[in-house]
Amino acid sequence: MKKYKITYQDENRVKTKIIESSNLKEEKLPSKILTIKPLSEKKDFNIFKSKIKIDKKLLISIFYELNIMLQANLMLNDALSILSQNYKEEKLNKFIDDLKKALLVLDSIDNIFKDYRLDIYIVSFLKLCQKNGNVKVNINAMSILLKEEMKIKKEFSKAIRYPFILLISLFLSINIIFYFVVPKFKIIFINNYDSLPLATKILFNIHTIYMSYFIYLILIFICMVFSIIYIYFKNKEFEYLVSKVIFKDVFFLRDLYSSMELYRMFLVINIMLESNYEFIKALNSSKTLIRNKYLLDKISLIENLLKNGKSINLSFKRANIFDSLVLNLINTAEASNSLTLISKEIKDIYKNRFDEKMKKFISYIEPIFLIIIVSLVLWIILAIFIPIWDMGSMMKN
């Protein structure tokens, strides 16, 4: 008996089920099957086994150099041999040798890179190379996307660094105040609790909770986070719900996230159309990069509608995730038979939208953090000093 993971379309939703069978032909299977994957029975439970991690900058450099050589029409074997000569480190040479096995389809990607800790996009593009055989196109797309990813991470880390340092400083300061300042201050004024200002009462109550339940609250928070992560990966319905909420409903983040995901999608579509692939094959290839289950569901819906003879414009409208500008461009592309040109325009639109949203995010995040921190500091100062000022006024009188 073998286990199989079946992905299928059901009422405009992508679903999965596990079937255990010795002969799949004798089983009652769903009507609209997308993929059937056998599940390995042997699993490695050695949690202490460390995976090979290669620096992201080196990976980008490797694929950038490989892309340049392939675009210059060098043979794949020659390009990989040159790469091996360029990198002397044993770990990198092993990776390039394994990359050669993957690109020559000597084994599956999952088996070849099971001991590596690689970015999901690298694995996805290498699977595309094995699936459609066009190494040159996919390495070019991977090189572009990896550079974009690195640029985005640099911009985001630059934006978040200063607020993060402020938050750490605030956390340490509050801990020092709660451990050394508030207890002594509390002894002086606890007998006059009813006459204290509201800010001071709140400070005393929070201090009591903090000193009594801080460790428990931290443990509860950690358990909740791990529980949500566990349910997310184990429950497909919950994973789909979270993906939908992030893609459609989270204020501001939805525009940033959706623009980036759709940019990646149209980047792959455009590159493959420029290499004379059919639109439906280019769309199918782009699905490999999509991790958001809600978006994947919508793209699978578009693909199925296209397979059933519907027009590209109608299929994209039915997905209900594209705005009127993009739909008008798709309609124009289909009518004028200029899908390659228009896909590049749509890719640039989503890239520009992402850049604009990222700039807004960077411009908003620092003042928001500063307002939060200043408000907390002001509250603590008022909670401590107002009773002292009142005491000073009473002593003068």
UniProtKB/TrEMBL annotation:
The chain crosses the membrane at residues 160-182, 213-233, 368-389. Its main location: membrane. It is found in: Cell membrane. Pfam families: T2SSF. Signal peptide: none annotated. This is Type II secretion system F family protein. It comes from Arcobacter roscoffensis. Keywords: Cell membrane, Membrane, Transmembrane, Transmembrane helix. Residues 65-183, 269-387 form the Type II secretion system protein GspF domain. Belongs to the GSP F family. InterPro entries: GspF/PilC, T2SS_GspF_dom, T2SS_GspF_sf. It is a multi-pass membrane protein.
